[in-house]
Specification:
The protein is built from 15 helices and six strands. The protein has about 325 residues and is of the alpha/beta class. α8 packs across α9.
Length: about 325
C-alpha cells in the first residue's frame, strides 16, 4: 500500500508492520517515522534493533535472528537506516520474505535516503503487497499551508490562520525552518498553566520571529528589551530563551565548520532571509569563540535548572550582549 507524507496517518493502524519511507522532504519523512514508532509502541513493540549501512547486506540474517523476539517474547522493531547508495538487493528482498508478513511480533521500518523510486520495479511491487510505502515529496504551496495548519492545531482558529500565512511567507518550501518555529510556538503555548491565554498567544507570535533577528543583526538594545519584557514571566519562559540563544549558537557553529556555510544554514532550518544575518554574526567571531559560547549556553541551562548558583538572568543578558555586540 502506498501513500504520501501527508496522508499516512490514515493507514498506519491497518495491521501492517512493515514500512518503507523515502522521498526528498526530510521533515515529512521524520514525522511519519515518529508516528509509526509511537503507533508500534502502543502495540507493545518495546525492543529495537538498528541496522546501519555497513550491516544492510546482512538484513536477512538480522531478521532471522530476531524473528520470535527475545526470550521474554518481546515485540521487536528492526529499523533499517539506509543513508547512502542505491536500494540494495538485501532491502529489495524484504518484499519476498513471506514468513515475516504474518508475524505480529516483528516490525520493520526502512528509512531510505533515496528521493525517487519507480513503482514499476518488481521488488517495489512485491514490497507494496506487504508494506506501507510512504513517499514524502516536496509540498506545493497549498499543501504546505495545509500541513502548517495541521501542525498548529494547538493554536486558536483565527490566530492559527495568521500564523500559517506568516510562517509560510517567511520561507516557503523550507519545512525544516517552519517546523523549528512550530516547536518554539509549542514550547510557549504549553509553557505553564497560570498565564492568561492571550498572553501566551501574544508571546508565541512575538518570540520566534523577533529575538533571533535582534541577536543575529547585532541589535543589543532590541534583544535585551525583549528579554526584559519576558522576564516578568520568568518561571515560564527561561527555558525558551535558552533554546533560542542555543539554536543561534549551534547553527552558527555548525555552519562555520562547513565548506558551504549558506547551504549548511538552510539545511539546519534557517530561513532564507536570515542567512545574511547569520553570516554577519559568524564573521564577528572565530570558531573557537563560538564553541566557547556553546559552553556558556550549557552553563546557562544549569543556572535555569538551579544546578549552579549563578544568576540566570544576569548570565543571559551578558551572553546576549557578548553575542550580539561581537
Amino acid at each position: 500500500m502506498k501513500c504520501d507524507g501527508l496522508s499516512y496517518q490514515k493507514y498506519i493502524d491497518k495491521g501492517i508492520n512493515i514500512f518503507f519511507l523515502f522521498g526528498p522532504e526530510i521533515v515529512l519523512k521524520n514525522n511519519a517515522k515518529d508516528s509509526i514508532k509511537k503507533h508500534l509502541a502502543e502495540q507493545g513493540f518495546n525492543e529495537k534493533k538498528i541496522v546501519k549501512d555497513k550491516e544492510i547486506d546482512q538484513i536477512d540474517k538480522v531478521i532471522a535472528e530476531n524473528v520470535g523476539g527475545s526470550l521474554f517474547s518481546s515485540k521487536m522493531i528492526i529499523e533499517i537506516s539506509h543513508t547512502k547508495g542505491k536500494i540494495t538487493e538485501s532491502i529489495q528482498s524484504i518484499g519476498n520474505m513471506e514468513h515475516i508478513k504474518s508475524r505480529d511480533d516483528l516490525a520493520i521500518i526502512i528509512d531510505s535516503h533515496v528521493e525517487k523510486v519507480s513503482s514499476s520495479l518488481k521488488w517495489f511491487k512485491n514490497l507494496d503487497e506487504i508494506a506501507l510505502i510512504i513517499e514524502s515529496k516536496k509540498l506545493k504551496s497549498f499543501e504546505e499551508k495545509i500541513w502548517l495548519k495541521q501542525q498548529l492545531n494547538f493554536i486558536d482558529g483565527s490566530k492559527r490562520s495568521d500564523l500559517v500565512n506568516k510562517i509560510s511567507a517567511l520561507g516557503s518550501g523550507n519545512l525544516v525552518a517552519q517546523q523549528n518555529e512550530i516547536k518554539l510556538l509549542k514550547l510557549v503555548s504549553l509553557s505553564e498553566e497560570g498565564i492568561g491565554e492571550t498572553s501566551i498567544k501574544d508571546q508565541a507570535e512575538f518570540m520566534p520571529f523577533e529575538l533571533e533577528d535582534k541577536i543575529i543583526k547585532g541589535d543589543v538594545k532590541g534583544a535585551i528589551r525583549i528579554v526584559n519584557s519576558i522576564r516578568e514571566l520568568e518561571s515560564h519562559y527561561a527555558a525558551l530563551l535558552v533554546w533560542v540563544v542555543g539554536k543561534i549558537i549551534n547553527n552558527s557553529t555548525s555552519a562555520m565548520q562547513s565548506s558551504r556555510p549558506d547551504a549548511a544554514l538552510l539545511k539546519l532550518g534557517v530561513w532564507n532571509n536570515k542567512v545574511g544575518g547569520y553570516r554577519a554574526l559568524m564573521n564577528r567571531f572565530e570558531l573557537k569563540e563560538m564553541i566557547n559560547f556553546q559552553k556558556k549556553v550549557f552553563q546557562l541551562d544549569l543556572s535555569n535548572k538551579g544546578i549552579n548558583k549563578a544568576n540566570f538572568w544576569e548570565r543571559l543578558n551578558d551572553l546576549i550582549i557578548e553575542l550580539a555586540r561581537g
